[in-house]
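Posting for a labmate who doesn't have an account.
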Amino acid sequence: MTPLSQLQVFNAMHASPNARLELSAQLGDGLAAALWSNRDDARDYQAPSHHTLSCYIADGTGTFRRQRPADKGAPNKLCIMPAGFESNWVVNGAIRLAHLYVSEAQFALGCVRLLDREPRELQLHEATFIDDPQQSVRFRQLIGLAWDEPAERLLASSLAHAIVDHAVLSQVGLRQGVRLKGGLAPSLRRQLVDYLEANLDQPITLSELALRCNLSEYHFARMFRTSFGLPPHQYLLARRLHRACQLLRLAELPLGQVALLCGFASASHFSNRFRQAFGATPGQYRMATCS
């Protein structure tokens, strides 16, 4: 995940003399979160390279988009600012709001996993001051956790994933006028997904996947990234870690066995990769989610 200091929306807020950062954390898997308070301000977000989902926690009744001054915010209102979009905001009075920053790679994973579509075909819809009780409850649960504690940060990561999945399922639509070039055929993409899911415990190589598609390794890697939004090794690692989380939550298997079932060479290799992704060990994750 890009460091918080390099996220455009985070930086725009942090540069304000009136905004105060209450909490922030990297949550792994291309997700980060921040809790802000602000007053009597104006903020411009210039085509960020990441998506931002926000929820108004308190106040905000004097906040509006500069182009739509009649529409005002309120507690529990949600906003969606897709990557690449510009938005301009005016804050009259006080506001307290939570931001969830989502990498385009994580969004791409959701498109493939939840919608079985190429990320290039889809777009996260911009939205301002929408009502979604499920999402607002998740945001309030998210900011109620101690993000600097490993176990609670893991719970925060799970909540963040739930927020993103909900947005992918409810706020994503087809891009208009897009003609896809390159990439893998839809049927081949589905076959690859099925094969990878069925063989996460096996040592899968790039050459093996390329051979299944009758492509050179170079062309396969390029076409895979075009269709899936990230390179084959990153996709495979994300799916292995997702499977590991499922096994850690639902079974009392030894950590070494979980590692082998998810295709990691050893328990130490598994633990290192898990800690890099989530900021905590598999054992801490199991304790946090099963307690």
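Reply:
Got it, the structure tokens are right above this. The mean pLDDT is 94.
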